[in-house]
Structures are given as C-alpha cells and as structure tokens.
C-alpha cells in the first residue's frame, strides 16, 4: 500500500441550478479517521462520491486534491450502507471481487489472512444469503481491506446493523483500517463521536469542525467525554435543522 | 397441489365438453366429443407422432437459435448507447408487423421445408428474449456499478461478472415467454405452406372434415407446448443455479 495522503475538497455543488451545498472547504488529515456528520439531504454522500470519482447527479465547481498531488480515484476503496455483495458468488469470490474485475490474480495468502481477521474463515465458501447482517458487513469490510488502498471512503457503513453489532463493527474497522485516510459519512452523532480523529458537521450553512474527545479511537461507548461530544453534536444538528 | 387442481380443472372441462356433445347431438364434423377424439388420437398415433416430431424439431431449433440471437443482441444493446438509440426503435417497429404477414414471403424464400418454420419461430421469440434480457442488463443495481467503478473494473469484466449474472432472472423469464410463443410461430409457418408438421396435419384434417383428427392434433400441440414450458421452466431455474455455482 502506498502512503496515505491527506485530501482537501473546496467548492460548491448544485443540482439543476439549486445549491446542494454552499461553498465549503474540508480537509481529511492523512492516515486519520474523519467523520462527516449531517442529516439527510445535506449533500454528505455527494461529498464522498465526489472524492471517489463516482457520478453524483450534481454539478460541482471546485477542486479535490491529495497532499501528494497524485490522482485520487484509483487509490480509493469504497464501502456503503448496503453491503453490495454479489448473491451468486461465495464469500471468497466477493472478497476478491476487485482483483477479478481488474483481471488480476488475487493473493490467496492475503485473502486467507483477511478472512481470519474478520473472523469468517469458516464461512469462506458460503453464499452471502447464508450469513447474518453483521457477517455480511464483515465480508464487505474484508473486500474493502483486500483492495489495500490508502484512502477508505465509508458511506453510512454500519447504519443498517443493530446497536451491538454496529459497536463491534466500528471497533473491528478501526483496528483493520489503521494508518489509512478514512472518511466516514454518517448521520449518527454517536458514531462520529466514537470514530472521528476529526469531526465535521455538515449543515445547509456549511461545514463546522467540532473538537473530538481526547480518547483514542475507537472510543469506549461509556466514555463520558465521548457521550458529551455525542450530545453536543446532536444539539448542533438540531439547531441547524 | 398446483398440478392436482390443474388436473381436476382439465377433467371438469372434458366432462363438460362430452356433456355438450351428447346433449346437443352436434354432428361430429362440427364438434367431436373427447371420447371420439381420444379414439381417433389412438388409431392415428403413429401419424400424429410423425408430425409432432417435425413440429417439435422446428420449435426446438427455433428456440435455440432465437434465444442465442436474443442473448447476443441484448448484450450488444446493453453495452452500446448508439446501439440502443439506433437499433432499439427498429426492433420495436419490426414487432409492430404481424409475423403472420411474413409467413408467405418466408416460405417463398426458404421453401416448404423446416427452414421457413424455424425462421418463423426465431422471428417470434427473438424480441421477447432480447427485450427481457436487455431490460435486466440495464437494471443492474447502481450500488454494484459504483463499487465496480471504484475498483477500476474493465467494462467487459463488469458485464461478465456483475451485469450478466444479475440479469439472468430476466433472461429466464424471456426464455419462458419464448417457449410459449415458439410453437405458435412454427404452426403459422406450417399453415402457410408445408407438407409435414402438426399445423399441416390440422389444416389437412380440417379440409377433409376430419374434425376429430384436427382436435387430436391440436390437443397434441397443446400438450407439447405445456411440456415445453415446464421443461424450459426447469432448465432456466437450473441455468441460474449453475451460474451461481460458477461465482
């Protein structure tokens, strides 16, 4: 994996002339987790899709640059709320989908290692339909890891999971994605408070940075400062609405 | 359960049919009863089998060629914007032409043998297969396409590994529809000009007022069409499963 760069996005977006978000600037520090928190429809997924180089349906005027000035889209691994597993392919084939789509051989040792780390070694040959929601999302995380990219973009990755599975997945993701530049788009103040080295609140008025709690991520769910941060973030979202 | 209730319905229809014939005393060249039709079917079983074989061959070959052409066209249309813009309207227009109107000219071009009937079957099933499969290929979930784009996937690999497998259920329904239409195409072809096949036999029997033989041939065609539908239903279910195994 190449070293993880920082990323800066500056600009505005509009859909059919109506502004989606006002001119804003946001920075993802290199090798750190940044949480972009916002309600529905403020354009937070658009920000993530712009960085991925995915179609957004919005017109973006501005720049997206990496600190090392190299192109971004081919250094990105993407994970969404929907696990996006191919129902007809085995867990293994889903994890090495990227290599198969590029026509490259997949590293079998690496695959076995990653399967072990997400705790799915016994499920390698099952189809996604035979797995629970949490297991499926672990397969999606393994697929993201298998890509071995320095920039990881997570679009509401854990919001479809129940509370305890979500907490476990957050911890696993932090452990496995250490050292990469991670952007988590979320509507959950608790998730932002737990996971962000940097926390950015996106509202119609623009981006507001929020000071993160002092503890290292993933912050304990019962950490007082984290809970206070969560409350402050929720207040900020409600005031903006 | 489904089949049991189907058999009961068929039995009821046969009893009703025989009842009408017996009560009204209709002459047998107008409406023969099911008992007479069964008897005629049995005495002419070799003749009917011979003609069924011909029609079955036309239908199966037509189904194979039509499906293959449909699959190829759908893949082309799904991967080419220009193809969709230029060729799709032409396809829809050709569907507005009644296939029946083409039968005489096909007979003129391809003769009285199998060729013109196979061509009719191909023409009639090509569109449903193309259109359902192409619809399926165009409806790949956007999330999967996003994922493959972030993975720097090639266009053809995305097609082969994601879009085609995701569209197989649509292909299955297209082929099932084709299996219902294919016998219609073949029989229309036989009506217009043939010396063999169930359609020819029906026309022949009708012309000689052998209405019982006509009914026997028609019911044989019906049973064949239902069997073909069942067979194709099973086969397309298997097709989906085997491609799932491939992964």
UniProtKB/TrEMBL annotation, chain A:
InterPro entries: AAA+_ATPase, ABC_transporter-like_ATP-bd, ABC_transporter-like_CS, ABC_transporter_ATP-bind, P-loop_NTPase. The keyword Glycoprotein does not apply. Belongs to the ABC transporter superfamily. This is ABC transporter ATP-binding protein. The keyword Nucleotide-binding applies. Residues 2-229 form the ABC transporter domain. It comes from the Bacteria.
């Amino acid at each position: 994996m190449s070293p993880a760069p920082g990323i800066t996005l500056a600009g505005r977006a509009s859909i059919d002339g109506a502004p989606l978000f006002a001119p804003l600037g946001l920075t993802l520090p290199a090798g750190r987790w940044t949480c972009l928190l916002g309600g529905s429809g403020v354009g937070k997924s658009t920000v993530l899709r712009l960085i991925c180089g995915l179609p957004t349906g919005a017109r973006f005027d501005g720049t997206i640059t990496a600190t090392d000035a190299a192109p971004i889209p081919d250094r990105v691994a993407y994970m969404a709320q929907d696990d996006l597993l191919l129902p007809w392919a085995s867990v293994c084939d889903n994890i090495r989908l990227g290599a198969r789509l590029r026509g490259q051989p997949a590293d079998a040792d690496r695959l076995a290692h990653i399967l072990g780390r997400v705790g799915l070694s016994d499920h390698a040959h099952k189809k996604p339909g035979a797995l629970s929601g949490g297991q499926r999302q672990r397969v999606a995380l393994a697929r993201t890891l298998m890509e071995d990219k320095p920039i990881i973009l997570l679009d509401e990755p854990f919001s479809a999971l129940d509370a305890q599975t979500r907490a476990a997945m957050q911890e696993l993701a932090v452990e496995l994605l250490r050292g990469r530049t991670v952007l988590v788009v979320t509507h959950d103040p608790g998730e932002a408070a737990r996971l962000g080295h940097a926390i950015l609140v996106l509202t119609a008025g623009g981006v507001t940075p929020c000071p993160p709690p002092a503890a290292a991520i993933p912050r304990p769910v019962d950490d007082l400062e984290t809970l206070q941060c969560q409350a402050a973030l929720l207040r900020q979202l409600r005031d903006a609405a | 359960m489904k089949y049991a209730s189907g058999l009961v319905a068929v039995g009821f229809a046969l009893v009703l049919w025989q009842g009408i014939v017996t009560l009204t005393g209709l002459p047998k060249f107008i409406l023969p009863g099911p008992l007479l039709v069964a008897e005629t079917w049995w005495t002419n079983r070799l003749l009917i089998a011979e003609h069924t074989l011909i029609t079955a061959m036309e239908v199966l070959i037509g189904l194979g060629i039509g499906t293959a052409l449909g699959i190829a066209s759908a893949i082309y249309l799904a991967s080419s914007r220009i193809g969709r813009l230029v060729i799709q309207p032409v396809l829809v227009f050709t569907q507005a032409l009644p296939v029946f109107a083409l039968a005489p000219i096909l007979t003129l071009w391809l003769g009285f043998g199998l060729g013109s009937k196979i061509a009719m079957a191909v023409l009639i099933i090509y569109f449903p297969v193309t259109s359902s499969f192409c619809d399926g290929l165009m409806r790949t979930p956007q999330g999967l396409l996003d994922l493959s784009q972030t993975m720097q996937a090639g266009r053809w690999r995305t097609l082969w590994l994601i879009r085609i497998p995701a569209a197989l259920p649509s292909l299955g329904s297209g082929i099932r529809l084709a299996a219902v239409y294919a016998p219609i195409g073949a029989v229309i072809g036989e009506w217009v000009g043939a010396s063999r096949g169930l359609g020819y036999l029906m026309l022949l029997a009708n012309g000689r007022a052998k209405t019982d033989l006509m009914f026997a041939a028609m019911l044989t065609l019906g049973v064949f069409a239902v069997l073909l539908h069942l067979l194709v239903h099973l086969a397309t279910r298997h097709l989906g499963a085997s491609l799932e195994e491939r992964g």
